[in-house]
Specification:
Elements: E1 2-3, E2 10-13, H1 28-35, E3 40-44, H2 55-60, E4 64-66, E5 75-77, H3 84-89, E6 95-98, H4 106-114, E7 118-121, H5 136-155, E8 163-165, E9 168-170, E10 174-178, H6 182-193, E11 197-201, H7 208-213, E12 217-218, H8 240-255, E13 259-262, H9 277-281, E14 288-291, E15 308-311, E16 314-317, H10 327-345, E17 346-347, E18 350-352, H11 358-361, E19 364-367, E20 370-371, H12 374-380
Parallel strand pairs: 2-3, 2-5, 3-4, 5-6, 6-7, 10-11, 10-13, 11-12, 13-14, 14-16
Antiparallel strand pairs: 1-18, 7-19, 8-9, 15-16, 17-18, 19-20
Helix pairs in contact: 5-6, 5-10
């Protein structure tokens, strides 16, 4: 299937309106790449300002500026999901690529289907080799893991590195990272560069080598984790009995740690609770937990999404949308993944949908008035037909 039929399709980049969102879906350096693919680029005035990209920098690279782009774009590139009002303004039958929060944004997904928008959610990109340059989640997780350590270092009432001073020796901080995916590995590397002693745990024993290659110690809990990963490479939810045993085994690591960074997420589900209130009580006063799963209710039972709270003498950081706190590089990285995916879809200046291709089918959420992604249908409890 190939469309639209206009001479040169318009790629639109709107100003993000979500609270505390400073990223932009396209950066000036990539505009020329898109125009050579046979499309025109339209950027809403001010869209890149919060990320450090001026309107003039887009124009210099070949984009056009407009006060509104939602109603004229054939292909819309976004970071956050469109609001209900934005969805109604979109061109009927247009294409949308963004982080659409498909499992929790039920009304938004239904609104896109009703508008007959062909919507691709970057969170659903399959974990296959061909998709690596389009893996927006991994790109954003890199930023989150890095920033989590900086937050912890700023909040911890101790130095991170070993210091030999005339006033005596300062021992290094002990950091425990739970989850050695992209965010966890970046946190490990950053904490090590700051001089901390780092230990890490993951349900997947295969990552032990990666953890140790970064200079950290792998915490072996002795649990059966053979079914911890699904065939697409994402973590699978485990039984309540498994999580209870895991909590018991991890308690001793938490009790001796100054900083704990949690990164465990299961797509489409509440984040698993890995740290109970009792485990927090057993931690040292002044310790810091940075919960990177806060947007999905958190890996710590006491996490309050969007807030920093002190419970039992421990600071628990539930800051959400960490990539937006480094908007310049976050926008660069996100824009590259989005445009790599768009380049995959474009054939001679037209969007070509090959639904037999896993790379095209995997992130596709709505098409021709229907919610077409099976997992999203199940999560939203939505009927397939929306229009």
């Amino acid at each position: 299937m190939t469309y639209p039929h206009s001479e040169r399709p318009i790629v639109g980049v709107p100003l993000e309106t979500a609270s505390n969102e400073r990223r932009v879906a396209l950066v000036p350096e990539i505009v020329a790449k898109l125009t050579t693919l046979g499309v025109d680029v339209l950027v809403q005035a001010g869209a890149g300002a919060a990320a450090g990209f001026s309107d003039s920098s887009y124009v210099e690279k070949g984009a056009r500026l407009e006060q509104a782009v939602l109603g004229v774009a054939d292909i819309l590139l976004k970071v956050q999901p469109p609001t209900g009002d934005e969805a109604t303004q979109m061109k009927e039958g247009s294409v949308l690529i963004g982080l659409l929060q498909p499992y929790t944004n039920g009304e938004g997904i239904k609104a896109l289907a009703a508008r007959r928008v062909t919507a691709f959610s970057m969170e659903l990109m399959p974990r296959i080799t061909r998709a690596q340059p389009m893996d927006a989640l991994s790109a954003m997780s890199t930023i989150a893991g890095y920033k989590a350590v900086l937050i912890a270092a700023a909040r911890l009432p101790k130095f991170f590195p070993l210091l030999m001073t005339a006033a005596g020796t300062v021992t290094p901080a002990r950091v425990f990272v739970i989850g050695a995916g992209v965010a966890g590995l970046q946190a490990i590397g950053t904490a090590r560069r700051l001089g901390a002693t780092v230990e890490a745990y993951d349900t997947r024993p295969a990552v032990k080598e990666q953890v140790e290659s970064l200079g950290a110690k792998f915490a072996a809990l002795g649990l059966d984790t053979r079914e911890a990963e699904d065939k697409s490479g994402y973590a699978k939810a485990q039984s309540e009995e498994f999580y209870k045993k895991q909590q018991e085994m991890m308690s001793k690591w938490l009790a001796t740690s100054d900083v704990v960074i949690t990164t465990a997420l299961v797509p489409g589900q509440r984040a698993p609770v890995l740290i109970t209130e009792e485990m927090v009580k057993g931690m040292r006063p002044g310790s810091v937990i940075v919960d990177l799963a806060a947007e999905q209710a958190g890996n710590c039972a006491l996490t309050e999404p969007g807030r920093e709270v002190i419970k039992h003498g421990v600071l628990i950081v539930g800051t959400t949308n960490l990539p937006s706190t480094l908007p310049y590089h976050a926008s660069q990285m996100y824009a590259r993944t989005v445009t790599n995916f768009l380049s995959h879809l474009l054939k001679e200046g037209r969007i070509h949908l090959d639904l037999d291709d896993e790379l095209t089918r995997g992130p596709l959420v709505t098409h021709q008035g229907r919610i077409v992604h099976p997992a999203v249908q199940g999560a939203l409890g939505a009927g397939v037909e929306v229009s």
